[in-house]
Amino acid sequence: MNRRSKVELFEEIRRGYAAGETIKGLAKKHGVHRRMVRQAIASSIPPERKKHAQEQPKLDPVKEAIERMLEGDRQAPRKQRHTAHRIWTRLREEDPDHPIGEPTVRR
User: Fold this and answer.
1) What is the DSSP letter of 45?
2) b/e string for 29-38 if b means 16 or more Cβ within 10 A?
3) Dihedral (CA of 94, 89, 92, 68) sign
4) Which residue in 6, 43, 50, 93 has a CA-CA distance of 20 to 30 Å to 16?
5) Of 69, 60, 68, which is closest to residue 98 (Cα–Cα)?
6) Which residues contact 31 (CB under 8 A, 6 or more apart)?
7) Rounded to an integer, what distance in angstroms lies between the CA atom of residue 68 and that of residue 90?
8) pLDDT in tens, 29-77
9) CA–centroid distance for 25 within its chain
10) Distance CA 35, CA 58 (A)
């Protein structure tokens, strides 16, 4: 899609449909999926994007411990705060039953 907003695109699609253009023709003309053309015909306001909540099965058991570490770091001087590597190291030492990768902790 070029530099126009979705609202402007929906307006153009609605005008084209009112003028008698087909859904397939509008989709091809504007370079969008036919589903989007149908959404534009149904409503002048584009639907909100869905937020996908991703599960974190490895991180869930240790999330509270990480939160406590980061909360304690808020009062600590900048140079004494935990790095992601240090948090990962502490998690491995304190709770070896939950194997977790360093990149997972970093993210």
Assistant:
1) S
2) ebebeeebbe
3) positive
4) 50
5) 60
6) 1
7) 12
8) 999 999 999 999 999 899 888 888 877 778 878 888 889 889 989 988 9
9) 32
10) 37
